[in-house]
Records
---
Amino acid sequence: MTWLVTGGAGYIGAHVVRALLQDGEPVVVLDDLSTGQSDRVDPAAAFVQGSVLDRGLVRKTLREHGVTGVVHIAAKKQVGESMADPLLYYRENVEGIVALLEACQAKGVDKVVFSSSAATYGLPDVELVDEDTPGVPLSPYGESKLIGEWVLRHCERAYGMRSMLLRYFNVAGAATPELGDTGVFNLIPMVFERLEAGERPRVFGGDYPTPDGTCIRDYVHVADIADAHLVAARALEDGRPGATYNIGRGEGSSVLDVLRVVGEVTGRDTTPDIVERRAGDPARVVAKVDRIREGLGFSAQHDLRSMVESAWAGWQQRHP
Ligand code: WQD
C-alpha cells in the first residue's frame, strides 16, 4: 500500500512518516509548508508541496503515486487562534477534509486515518474520558475536529470509505532531536522558553479541584502517537472496520508534576509563579485507553520523563 500523509512536514506528521517508512510502507507527503518544514520530510518519502484544498493537486497526487490510503494530519491546531479567527479553522480543517475526501472518492481511495483530538470532548466531567463521552468542544478548533469525524463516519456509511479516528491527548517529546516540536504553544516548550529567558515558569491556576490544585492532563509521546497511526493503518489494510480511539497513556500528570520532571531533566530551578487561570482550561482530561488496547493491541510505551528528555534534547539543539 502507498500512504499519502497530509501535513507530513509538521511535528506529528513527520513522526508518522518515519514510522510508516520504518515499517516498509511507501509514503507520499502533501504539505503546504505553512507551518511544516521541508527538511523534516524524510528523503525516502515523495514530497508534494501544496494544500489539501487544492482538489486538482490532490487528485493528481493520488493518481501519480498510486495512493491507496490517506493519513490526514494537515490542519490548523491552535485553540486560541481558532477563537480569534474561526473562519480560518473552518476553511482549513472542515473544507480541507471535505476537499480531500472528494478527491479520495473520485480516485477510489477508501482508507483514512484521521488526526482528531481530545479537544473534541471540551470539559469532560469524568475521571477517565472514554470514546463515548459526549463531545461538546469549546473552540472552533475542537469543533472542526469533531466535524471532521462526522464527515468521515458518514463517508463510511454512504461510500464504504473506512476510517480510524485517533483522538490525541497532550502530545509531547520527539523521536530524534531534529523532529522536535518547533512551536511554543504547549506546556513543555513554554516552560523551556521561560527557563531559557531566565524567568520562572508560569502555572495557569493553582486552585483547581485536583490534589495539588493544578490541571491534570494525559501526556503522550509523539513516537507513541506515530505507532498508533501505524497500527491503525495496518488494521485498515487488514480489512477491519473503522473506529474511534483515544490515544493517550491513561495516566494523569499535573502541571506541577511536569515542572518537577522538567527540573530533574534540565537541572534548572522550576519553582513557578502561580498566575490566573487560563480561560477554558478543564481541570482534568485523562484518557481511557482500553478500546485501542483491546481493539488494536496498542498501548503507549513512553513515560513523562522520556517525553521531557527528548523534548529538551530537541530544544537544546535548536537553541545552542
Ligand atoms: C497543558 C496544561 C495549562 C502552559 C491543548 C489543546 C488540545 C491539544 C493540546 C491540539 C494546562 C497548563 C500551560 C504554561 C501552564 N491541541 N499550562 N503554564 O490546553 O491541555 O491542550 O493542546 O490538538 O486540544 O487544547 O495543552 O500544553 O496548552 O496546557 O500552567 O505556561 O498546562 O493551563 O492545564 P492543553 P497545554
Note: The pocket of WQD is lined by residues 77, 79, 117-119, 168, 170, 186-187, 190, 202-204, 215, 217, 255, 278, 281 (CB under 6 Å).
---
Amino acid sequence: MSDINQLRTIREEILHCQKCPLAKGRKNAVPGEGPSSVDVMFIGEGPGYHENQQGKPFVGQAGMFLDELLASADLKREEVFITNVVKCRPPDNRDPMPEELAACAHYLDEQIALLDPKVIVTLGRFSMAKFIENGKITQIHGKSHQVGKRLVVTMYHPAAALHQPALRPALIEDFSKLRHLLAKEEPIEPKVEAPAPETKPGKQEENPSLPEQLSLF
Ligand code: URA
Ligand code: SF4
C-alpha cells in the first residue's frame, strides 16, 4: 500500500477507534491534517472543544495563535502536518491520562513513520514527553534535540501562552528561531538574506572582502 493510502487507513481507524474511554465522549475524532509527505510536523496535546466539533486540529483560539506563529516561522499550515498525542477530546480539556496516551500512541507512531518529517515540533508537555525523557519545558523550550534521524524542537503549547501571557514572548522568539533552523535544514533552497553582490568582471578583485561581508547581513 502506498504511504498516502496507509495514512488514509490510519485516519479511518482513528475515526472509528474505541481503544480508550475517550471514544465515549467525542463528537469527532481528530486524526490530524496536512500533506502526505512533510518536512515539518507539529504535535499538540489533544482536541479541544472546537476541534471535537469540527474534527480538525487547532481550529480554536490556540489554533489561531498557532497560525500566527507558523507565519512567523515562514510556514504555511498547508505545508506542515498538524496532529496531537491523543486524537479524541479529553472531557473538559483535562490532561490525557497515561492509559489514553498509551492506547493512542501507535497512531502517532505510524503517522510519523509514514510522513517521515525531518523536524518534529512538540507543542506542550505531553508531546515533549514522548521524545525527551524527564525534560522540563521551562528549561528546554525552543531547543532542538537530535532524536534518532529527526530533529525535535520542544515548544510551549500556544494555549499555555494564552493562559499565561508571560510565556507569549518566549513562544514568539522560539518560533523565530525555528525559522532560522528550518532555513539551515533546507540547503536546496537557501533563504537569501542579502542581495547577491554585483559580479561585474574585475569588481571582486578590487574588493575581495565585499561578498563575504554582505553575506553576513
Ligand atoms: N490544543 C491541542 O493540543 N490540540 C488541538 O488540536 C487544539 C488545541
Ligand atoms: Fe482511540 Fe486515541 Fe480516540 Fe482513544 S484517543 S479512542 S485510542 S483514537
Note: Residues 160 and 167 are 7 Å apart (CA to CA).
---
Amino acid sequence: MTPPPPPPQVRRGVGRAADLLRSARRAVALTGAGLSTASGIPDFRSAGTGLWERLDPMAVASLTSFRYNPDAFFGFLRPLASQIALAVPNAAHQALARLEQAGRLVGVITQNIDQLHQKAGSRRVLEVHGNVRRATCIVCYREVEAGPYLDQFIRDGAIPRCPGCGGVLKPNVILFGEQLPEKSWQQAQAACRSCDLMLVAGSSLEVLPVAKLPMLALDRGAHVIIVNQAPTYLNVRADVAIMGDVASVMPAIAEQVLHA
Ligand code: ZN
C-alpha cells in the first residue's frame, strides 16, 4: 500500500532538513516516545492512549512509590515489558541508523528505554532515562542482567528478587524523582554543546531536564530540526519544524540526505 503524498509544507520541511543535515559536520539526534509509538509502545503523554491518562505517574512510577509499593510499579511495568520485548524498530529508527552508518549523524540521545535504536543498528546511543537490560537491588545495590528476571516476570508476574539478599530488583530505568544516570547525562550534555546540528525526533520536549538539551545546542549556534506530531516549546526557534509522523518524515529526510 502506497502512503498518501505528504502535504507541501512537510515536503518543503523535509528538503530543508536534508540540506542542513548534508552540510552539518556533527549532527546529533534527540529522540523520545513519539519515535516508538509506531512500534506499538505507548507514549506516556498522548491524549487518549498515553499511559499517564490512565495511571498516576507518582503513584506507580516514582522512586518513593517504588520503595513503598513495588507491586504497583511492577503491575504497571508488566504489559509495557511485554510490549518492549516484542517490539521491532520502525522506519524512523531505521532512518536514524542509516544516517549514522553513512557518517551523517554522530549518535542518538534517547529518552526511550526500549532499545529499538540499537535493534535498528544505531551504534552510539545515550540512554538518558536508563534501560531495562540491567536491574539493581534496592537494598544492597547489587546489579544484575535483567533479561532472565524480566522473562520470568512477564511469564508469571513474580517480582524480581536479588539473588544475594532477596531485596526487590529495580530495572535500571529512571523513575520520577530520580537522578538521571550520571555518565550518560554528562555525555549527552557534552554532545549537545559540541554539535552543529540537533535533530529532535518524536519528543514533545516536555520532560525535564532532557527538554533543555536542545537549548545547549542553540546557545552554541547549532541548527535545530524538530520532527514531531505535536508542537514543542522550541518550534519557534528551530530552523525547521515539521509537524508530522516521524515514521514517514524521517525516512523521507534520510532518503534525500543519502541519495539526493
Ligand atoms: Zn540485594
Note: The mean pLDDT is 90.
